[in-house]
Amino acid sequence: MDRPLDYKTHIRKTTFIALPIMMGHLGHVLTGIADTAMVGRIGATALAGAALGNSAIAIFLTFGLGISMAITPMVASDFGSGRKREIASWLRNGFFLGIFNGLALLGVSLLFLPILDMLDQPADAVAVGKPYFVLLALSLVPLMIFQHFKQFAEGLSLTRFAMFVSVGGNLLNVGLNYLLIFGKWGFPRLELAGAGYATLIARMVMALIMFWYVFQNSHFKAYHSGFVLNRYRMDKIRKLWNLGYPIGLQYVFEAGAFVMAAFMIGWIGKIQLAAHQVALTLASATYMAASGLSSAATVRVGNFIGSRDPVNLKRAATTAYLLVALFMSCTALFFILFRHILPAFFSNDPEVQRVASDLLVIAAFFQLSDGVQVVGLGILRGMKDVRLPTLIALFSFWLIGLPTGYALAFFFGMQVNGIWVGLAIGLSLSAILMYRRYRHKLHIFERYTIAES
């Protein structure tokens, strides 16, 4: 075994991998931020419709992202042990799974569309939110193709190009938003639907560029062997699915909790739902940045799993925890200091701004828990431990967080603030349990490698 790396080296390597992933993940969220900020200029109804559309599609989006994330630990582990032929098989079979994933998500999400009319939400928000939801559903197909190549590249620690594609896609989305939401330069004024078309077009462009990159860049040349769709292997696809669907469920349980929270807030009123969308958009940005560190932890831990190195694995995990704690503490302070300023970028309505500023204070308090739990998920994903973390997410959010939020909101009169406090409790519980699970798995890995040597 090589001499353990010092923490300074771990910080440098983790940051090198994480920063481009963070920017790439932020690209997904910045699409929602741009939609929210620009749609908010139309009015509270369009903003509430965006909240419904984004909340509903989040269930399918997060599950698909989770499926795609199975590729990264497989590639990282084989890269750590030098198995190039296995890496090539993950590229080929993962691509097939990515296409199927996108088409399946599209079909299932369209079946969900009639349910939006049954959720007792403001009628005018549902009317504008449904066409937006359909366009977001169509965009899942190119997004899943993009994700396949992105996650494959991350497994090889090649993260920068995907960052540039994500940032470029977001800039394209903003430009198309301006043209299609407001009807500029001769384009039709489509309002909220225009934001949906912008997202669809931007994600199609991102998928095409990432496909071109993987098959033109010399870093991937060794893994192109046998890349034809009719040469897929069901055993490989089954392995990706068996690892990916619990990851997808983890994200669904968390994102689904926020979706259910949005529906409960819709029972309170349109203003509260619009404010929830504003605060959640900002909190999602910090979460996705933290998830970049989580993805870096998956790669680093996966490498050390492949090379049978428990000492460096522990140091890599500790580094990820420390970095996310520092980052999320800074964002918590940012939310508190600018809680009255930030909502004004998303809505002109004074009441929406007031409610959103209160929610940002609660968001500040759960920043650390949110970061710790998502990094814990990434570490466990690198150790290919996904089933118990899925149950932890189910327990923390659906059995504790949401019922607590409902009770605080409707029985104790805290309204929308009570729902957010319940979510904060769920996140904190998840963070504690994920960390305990990591310590348990680390102990088993240490004993296994000692016995092996």
What class, by secondary structure content? Answer: mainly alpha
H/E element order:
HHHHHHHHHHHHHHH
Straight-line distance between termini: 10 Å
Beta strands, count: 0
- Sketch the major β-sheet: none
The stretches of 5 or more residues where confidence is low (pLDDT under 50) are none
Instruction: Give the CA-based shape.
Output: globular
Structure, explained:
By secondary structure, the protein is mainly α. The mean pLDDT is 84. It is globular. Helix 2 runs parallel beside helix 10 and helix 11 packs antiparallel against helix 12. Helix content is 82%, strand content 0%. The protein has one domain. It has 15 helices and no strands.
Brief summary of the model shown:
With 453 residues, the protein is an all-alpha fold. It is built from 15 helices and no strands. It has one domain (7-452).
Distinctive features:
about 450 residues, about 0% strand
Helices and strands in order, then pairings?
Blueprint: H1 7-39, H2 44-68, H3 71-80, H4 84-112, H5 123-138, H6 140-155, H7 160-182, H8 192-216, H9 234-268, H10 270-306, H11 310-337, H12 350-365, H13 367-382, H14 387-410, H15 415-452
Helix pairs in contact: 1-2, 1-7, 1-10, 1-11, 2-4, 2-5, 2-6, 2-9, 2-10, 3-4, 3-6, 3-10, 4-6, 4-9, 5-8, 6-8, 7-8, 9-10, 9-14, 9-15, 10-11, 10-12, 10-13, 11-12, 11-13, 11-15, 12-15, 13-15, 14-15
